[in-house]
Amino acid sequence: MSTPTPASLLAAARDGDRAALARVLSLVERGGDGAREIGARLGEPRDPAATSRAYTVGITGAPGAGKSTLTSALLTVIRRQDQRVAVLAVDPSSPFTGGALLGDRVRMGQHDLDDGVFIRSMATRGHLGGLAVATPEAVRVLGAAGFDWVLVETVGVGQVEVEVAGQADTTVVVVNPGWGDAVQAAKAGLMEIADVFVVNKADRPGAAEARRDLERLLDMSASGDWRPPVLAAVAESDEGVAEVWAGVGRHRQHLETSGELGERRRRRAAEEITRLVGVRLMEQARAATIGERAATLAAEVAAGRLDPWSAADQLLPGP
Amino acid sequence: MSTPTPASLLAAARDGDRAALARVLSLVERGGDGAREIGARLGEPRDPAATSRAYTVGITGAPGAGKSTLTSALLTVIRRQDQRVAVLAVDPSSPFTGGALLGDRVRMGQHDLDDGVFIRSMATRGHLGGLAVATPEAVRVLGAAGFDWVLVETVGVGQVEVEVAGQADTTVVVVNPGWGDAVQAAKAGLMEIADVFVVNKADRPGAAEARRDLERLLDMSASGDWRPPVLAAVAESDEGVAEVWAGVGRHRQHLETSGELGERRRRRAAEEITRLVGVRLMEQARAATIGERAATLAAEVAAGRLDPWSAADQLLPGP
Fold it and tell me: pTM higher than 0.80 for the full model?
């Protein structure tokens, strides 16, 4: 039996073959030629509808905020509306922090036998560009495979996570009561990307204060004609989860009626292209820094006789 | 009064002015022209000794492993030997996860009035290259300011942290008993960068098992003539901390007598140059993706009529 090509795997994934879909996503995650071919196939003009079908919802927040629990609860709501949904759990950190995540994944196990649900972790495979490059590609694959929604859940709120979460059509930021201060959300750059705020574990003390703090921050920072709602939920017991989903729906409707959805997607595409140009150039950088001349410069820098910026300039062709 | 130049700040920092040192490090953290000028000054041939004086010790491990506590305890040991030591606490994540860190910082407060200790957090300022570029530069600054040791402590074990910790002369990996499995350390790529393992909180159940697991992994993976020792400690009560420092000292001696220290530093310098070449090229990428043609391509990608890799290729000059 011959190894299936990326193209044949993609075709099978489009026809509903889940094993093929998983393999396509592995190719995308791995980067390189396979990912490249998948990308080119997805971009073929004959089938533009299939590649832009999925609506993406980013779910981000501090570790332990209950993102996986909320995601799992949202799956139930979405399936009740008979829509197909995929989850990408994006983890740029190591398996070190995976304890809680694995626990939460068990909860998602209730959806295991449901053909309308597809759950997938995306980890870093160390290739250039990493998850910021692989995630939008994976979203397109899932759209092509017929999923109506893709929930992109991030593990924490590091650089990569905020970047990935910000690529969604609608971004949900999950915070907790007594989780310090809503000001922290602002500091982490989440006010800029939040379209919906959820104060999860709202049965704990301090929920009202957390909501009030967020509203105040929004008073100071909100602009444009969408003001992110601040919703309370207890995802563990499904409380408020339907309201969260309704909030996402309102934001989607706002984007669609205002024409902002197309604008947002164009902006994201532009960012994605910039990132890929960066990857290409980084490949050139690696190539430029191999060889004897580079080794000599490195020795000079290590000895403190040359600064690394000057060395970099000497290896690069003039602008 | 005129604003001091980067050069004058660096000169003052070299003469022991701590406020000037803090400002120089802020410039380095911020990147751009100021950082560039500092780098060039440090690389001036007239004073190579000062720029390579500090010996760097990376301290990494999962959040909550007790890295800050260990770092603080090590400061006491180092100061007892009358050596000057700086700590760079590198945090690529957001203030979200800062709770424990802040708590641990308080412990470090005991060193506040000690002129031979300098503690500094390094956060991401969003410039190209980020902490991976700023940290080695900051280490050079601290070396120039006369510190014998620079402890580089990372907050977690994400991509950036592992990369930064791996840039040290000696890298200490901190794990805990019952912290899942030493296999997780292997998965996170820590076996490759560890020179010394510390099983911290070794008064808890499972410490012996954690040490045994690490030894087994080393049996499988260790190569070369240095086998990382696996040490037990209870940093909270200073237990085993002197032994950890002795382990670092043995590794340093091994590197120095074998000539590997120079080799390691040259390799690191080469990586640093590659990174800076990458930053330069990324600046070119940004420039290449501004303009009407880029906007048109982004719209095509957003509509699903073109794949982003092809768009990137069209914006780049041929190889």
Answer: no
Q: Which of A91, A84, A124, A94 is nearest to A105 (CA)?
A: A91
CA distance B227 to chain A (A): 23
Longest CA pairwise span in chain B (Å): 67
Nearest CA among A149, A221, A226, A153 for reference residue A182: A221
A302·B269 Cβ contact <8 A: yes
Phi first, then psi: what are they for B288, rounded to 5°? -70, -20
Which residue type occupies B92? P
A238, B249 in Cβ contact below 8 A? no
First to last CA, chain B: 51
Q: Please name the member of B63, B270, B301 whose beta carbon is closest to the beta carbon of A272.
A: B301
Helices (H), A178-240: 182-187, 190-193, 207-221
Rg of chain A (C-alpha set): 22
Are the C-beta atoms of residues A89 and A124 closer than 8 Å to each other?
A: no
Phi-psi region of B246 (alpha: psi -120 to 50; beta: other; left: phi over 0): alpha
β-strand partners of B90: B122, B154
Phi and psi dihedrals of B86, rounded to 5?
Answer: -115, 150
pLDDT single digits (tens) A7-65: 999 999 988 899 999 999 988 888 878 888 888 888 665 454 444 578 999 999 877 88
**What pLDDT score does B188 carry?**
67
Positive or negative CA dihedral for A169, B303, A123, A158? negative
State yes or no: pLDDT of A265 exceeds 70.
Answer: yes
Nearest CB among A277, A308, A313 relative to B285 is that of A277
